[in-house]
Amino acid sequence: MALEEKTLVCRDCGQEFLFTTGEQEFYQSHGLQNEPSRCPDCRASRRKERWGNYNQPRQMFNAICAECGVETTVPFEPREGRPVYCRDCYAKQKQSG
Ligand SMILES: [Zn+2]
Ligand SMILES: [Zn+2]
């Protein structure tokens, strides 16, 4: 039986996307009965969400190192009056202090 490309509608964003014959073969070979209900974009972003807890870096804030003046990013919001250090200087601070 020949496979045909199908047009499906993403349940997340409502956009139409192609369920290609290649994907259908993949689904069949893996014994998956259900057609994908989300477009590749939404699938990718959902996967990212799921892995986010493990892999994704936390939100980073731009800051200027109080020691050497280099631009750096820190995982917390820099506050006025609180010095922020780049990774190098932070390591130095730890060693010396
Ligand atoms: Zn979508
Ligand atoms: Zn520095």
List the topology elements:
Blueprint: E1 6-9, E2 16-19, H1 21-29, H2 40-55, E3 61-64, E4 71-74, H3 87-96
Antiparallel strand pairs: 1-2, 3-4
This protein binds zinc ion (2 copies).
One zinc ion binds at residues 65, 67-68, 70, 85-86, 88-89.
Structure in words:
- The protein is of the alpha+beta class.
- The chain has two domains: 6-55, no CATH class; 61-96, no CATH class.
- It is 36% helix and 16% strand.
- The protein is built from three helices and four strands; from the N terminus they run ββααββα.
- It has helices spanning 21-29, 40-55, 87-96, and strands at residues 6-9, 16-19, 61-64, 71-74.
- The strands form two sheets. A two-stranded antiparallel sheet has the order 1-2.
- β3 and β4 form a beta hairpin.
- It is rod-shaped.
- The mean pLDDT is 87.
- The protein binds zinc ion (2 copies).
